[in-house]
Amino acid sequence: MIRRRHLGLMLAGTACSVAANAAGTTWRLATGYRADSLHGLNLQQMADEVAQATAGGLRIRLQAEGSLIPLTRMLGGLQAGEAEAGEAIMTGLVKEIPLAGADSVPFIVRSYADARRLWRHQRPLIEKHLAARGLRVLMAVPWPPQGLFSQKPIAGVGDLRGQAMRTYNSTTVRIAELMQARPVDVPMIQVGQALAEGRLNAMITSAVTGVESRVWTGLKYFYPINAWFPKNLLMVRQSAYDQLDAETQARLMQAAGAAEARGWQASERAASESVDTLRSNGMHVEAVGPEFAQALRRMGEKLSLEWVRQVGPEANQMFISYFTNS
Ligand code: PCA
User: Whose Cα sits closest to atom 3 in ligand 1?
Assistant: First the structure.
């Protein structure tokens, strides 16, 4: 009898917590990238871990490929409450937060170790800017280093003159201008299509993006110039975060920390594996010649100076702490 009552109570308890979970919170996570890409897979794993760690109390639904908020208006979309969470490439936020452009100042960050150091010095500043917009930083994960893809071999800057060069942020536009190439803005999810339509002859992006877009159908050369390591940033609306109970918040932050560590490792692995994949699909992977290397270095110096001048004291402060600290 007692046993049966106990069982009844247990069942009632279970039903109750199931009901609570069914009524749990669901967040929309908007991204402009594909769900099955380097970053998308990591986000999905984070979402799965959060759902598990909170017993369904917080579910995060990934809405990829700009289906909910296009990449170009992620910040505005989040601020307007069109999603609770969103992922964007930091260099895409420069109109609203100029400091986010540090991620694509060429030839400052040369390795994953440098990229980690930059993020350590950048994070508090980026957090401050996003907090002012009611957003909270969960994590950032880099793309592999940016290299130069081209249809034809490139011996010097002159070889890019007049070429249709794909751009995805203000730095790539500026580089195309400096090389007297023709900038063509193509979101990553449309690169394959743009190539198929013959709209691109060159671009700067990571080897992994080259692989995910199967660019060897149109581009034959890859120069791993390691120009910069842009990061994707995962943000949530502070007001949505504040509605979670303390334990759910802690579980979310824990899963985000794990996803950040996992993402950096996955990025570094993908960096070398992707170059192999480009090669095995017939692409020529070559170092740039001395003349072109020199021109690229000069261009990097020019762009660094432009960037610091444009962004002002905060840019100086960040680079000084990046260059003088570990
Ligand atoms: N891939 C993205 C951003 C940087 C990268 O490696 C793109 O090409 O748009």
Answer: 205
pLDDT at res. 15: 41
Residue-wise pLDDT tens digits, 176-230: 999 999 999 999 999 999 999 999 999 999 999 999 999 999 999 999 999 999 9
pLDDT at residue 3 is higher than 50: no
Q: Is the CB of 206 under 6 A from ligand 1?
A: yes
Report whether residue 209 contacts ligand 1, using a CB cutoff of 6 Å. yes
Distances 207 to 38, 242, 259, 269, 281 between C-alpha atoms, Å? 12, 39, 22, 11, 12
Residue owning the nearest CA to atom 9 of ligand 1: 188
The single-letter DSSP state of residue 155 is S
Q: Give alpha helix (H) positions in the chain.
A: 2-22, 38-53, 74-79, 112-131, 170-178, 191-196, 207-212, 238-242, 246-280, 290-311, 313-324
Q: Give residue limits of the domains in the chain.
A: 23-143+231-273, 146-227+275-324
Q: Is 143 in the pocket of ligand 1 (CB under 6 A)?
A: yes
Q: In the CATH scheme, what is the homologous superfamily, with its name and number, of domain 23-143+231-273?
A: Bacterial extracellular solute-binding protein, family 7 (3.40.190.170)
Atom of ligand 1 nearest to the CA of 206: 6
* Confidence grade of residue 22 (pLDDT, cut at 50, 70, 90): low
**What digits encode the pLDDT tens for the residues 44-81?**
999 999 999 999 999 999 999 999 999 999 999 999 99
CATH class as words, domain 146-227+275-324: alpha beta
